[in-house]
């Protein structure tokens, strides 16, 4: 061990050690709900003795985990959650699992009764004598351990941090009994430099021979295409790098499509953009694969799961497939792959750029490049990017969700917004009907697809990136699940903005069942009806400014007003849009999933 990279502490309390490390990581806020079993941590946070770190108190532990996830996604730093024992920990389970599945670096520290009380029926028992929360979280994180004694804490803490900051990032859990968190460590060594740089694996480059083979496959192809997943997000946050990447694409006329989760990392308005491919993807990407039939497909940073593959679409079966991912278990898992490459996205793309710069293009290659450029332009000129384009300009009331997204797209142009998209019909409408360009960013919980996520994640996003507008887009059903976190934002004076699509139904299930039964005449059936809750009054009661919008011409003025007030008044803003409940989200064949097999 190189002790130059570590600092030694003697006679240091467990909470002091935790907050010293988090401060070194650049963590400004942690999230949680108070409870007696985490009192030693709360004591420092409340007394402002936690290295300047502030606690955002949520209204439910799941919300705290969603907030920490949102914070981690916008900052790239560690998201930290504190909960009490038993139900406090299990309440956070969905949020922690959500972060883990989407590779957010998140650490949950849950409390526990003192070790001397375990097995005696202690309150909120979290051992095998009650509900063993350590074991519960082993199935939802990459690391879950019970800290059995004070001197062992810094070792387990260090293991958890190393795993959280591995590549890809993951979630971890430590169950800390009260006597341990109250204890004093006699001697502890902690890293003197932040771990969130990711270590050596993060810069993993492909073997130069394999990178050359991949480049040659693109060069020799008549119609290559690159499919970017969320694993390429960090690479394309560098403006200088994306400029070089665009130059590479332009030189070779290689079009790009993104996964739903990667929406916005590549400029949707660029001539070489095919938009999103996958569930609720754009027509241009589907038609390109169907009509032009690319002979070389390079996938970078996508697992090709149900969302990103469009329910494992046959369209992705290509003559030559190259799959690049930092996780060597991903390439070849779903589709037959000709070249599997383990590499970090930015490093690999830089290799392609350098190979291109060192390559003189033959006259025949230039002719091929020019032809595919003109073929792509012709396809985009004759293929609408969106379904039901006429609805994007509809003046009807209730508002067509397609029109709402078109207006939101206009509003976002030229701004720097973090969008947090919930799960439900809002996911499909936003994914399909908006065209997002950087520096706007889009985050959504596609890994675990948890409803209600955005309502809390946007709070963590605003805390972590306060200079940007931070907007949550949620359905009414999801808002009823945990929109109560709006009160957390109000209590802490956090200017998050909420756009609620109100159709008074659990719309995705409602539309799915009507589609499967092939009986759209029952769209007014009220079985999944929400009962007409007054969401504006609900939001106001939680301390937010709230607006009810029914007319399309009111959309942009309401967005402008809400975003301005969110920052000037440091107060959450909730806009409830009354939308047409008969409009189905563009999920395509996903509705057929529930059909009985013949």
UniProtKB/TrEMBL annotation:
Highest taxon of the lineage: Bacteria
GO cellular component: acetolactate synthase complex
Gene Ontology MF terms in the entry: acetolactate synthase activity; flavin adenine dinucleotide binding; magnesium ion binding; thiamine pyrophosphate binding
Keywords: Thiamine pyrophosphate
Thiamine pyrophosphate enzyme N-terminal TPP-binding domain residues: 16-125
Protein name stated in the entry: Acetohydroxy acid synthase
Residues of the Thiamine pyrophosphate enzyme TPP-binding domain: 422-575
GO BP, one annotated term: isoleucine biosynthetic process
Species of the source: Candidatus Methylumidiphilus alinenensis
Domain Thiamine pyrophosphate enzyme central: 213-352
Gene3D superfamilies: 3.40.50.970, TPP-binding domain
Keyword field contains Ligase: no
Family the UniProt entry places it in: Belongs to the TPP enzyme family.
InterPro entries in the cross-refs: DHS-like_NAD/FAD-binding_dom (IPR029035), THDP-binding (IPR029061), Thiamin_PyroP_enz_cen_dom (IPR012000), Thiamin_PyroP_enz_TPP-bd_dom (IPR012001), TPP-bd_CS (IPR000399), TPP_enz (IPR045229), TPP_enzyme_TPP-bd (IPR011766)
